[in-house]
Every structure is written in structure tokens, then in C-alpha cells.
Specification:
With 107 residues, the protein is mainly alpha-helical. 60% of the residues lie in helices and 9% in strands. It has a two-stranded antiparallel ribbon with strand order 1-2. The chain has a two-stranded antiparallel sheet with strand order 3-4. The N and C termini lie far apart (45 Å).
């Protein structure tokens, strides 16, 4: 393990930090700094800079890329369950899916 790795801060992803990360990525997508489904090298550099400036964190690209990958997995699972379903809502207080009991029983 290198000195830099032993000094790296463990990433802590609360709701606000995640929101800032997503916004930094969306800003890069809007600037066409995406290559397929991933940001370009410049896109990552600029997203990292924007994210660290807005949050006061000192995360590195690996930490942001790990979060990107985890969010992608979560989105895929969510989409598989709910993506094409109608009649579902979102409970903003509980941060959960709002669905009729019959729907939950089928799942």
C-alpha cells in the first residue's frame, strides 16, 4: 500500500453529497463530456473538481467512479422493479416507493 492510499479519506455518501456528485456528473453530460455511458477523462477531471469544491471533500477519481458504478447498479435494480410500472409513486417523507398493497404482495 502506498503512502497516498493509507492517507486517503474513506468516502462518506450522505444524501447531499450524493446529490452534489450527481449534479457534477449531469453538468459534464450537458457539456458533452461523455463517451457512451461514462464520462470522458476531462469530464471526470472537471466533475471531480466541481464536486470537491462544492462539498469541501477531497475525494479522488476512484472514489467517484466507485460511486458511479454503485449508483448504476442501484438504478438498474430499481428500473427492473419499477421502471415500466404505472400506478406507483414516491413517498418524499419516507424516501420509499408508494404502491398499493396488492403490488407489494405480488413482488
Amino acid at each position: 500500500m502506498s503512502n497516498n492510499e493509507s492517507l486517503k479519506t474513506k468516502a462518506a455518501w450522505d444524501m447531499e453529497t450524493t446529490k452534489q456528485f450527481i449534479q457534477a456528473c449531469l453538468d459534464q453530460v450537458a457539456k458533452q463530456q461523455r463517451n457512451g455511458t461514462i464520462l470522458t477523462k476531462k469530464g471526470w477531471k472537471d466533475a471531480l473538481s466541481q464536486f470537491n469544491k462544492k462539498t469541501g471533500k477531497q475525494y479522488d477519481k476512484i472514489q467517484l467512479k466507485n460511486k458511479w458504478d454503485n449508483l448504476k447498479k442501484e438504478w438498474s435494480a430499481w428500473y427492473k422493479l419499477f421502471g415500466k410500472k404505472t400506478g406507483l409513486g414516491w413517498d418524499y417523507t419516507k424516501h420509499t416507493v408508494d404502491a398499493p398493497n396488492e403490488w407489494w404482495e405480488r413482488k
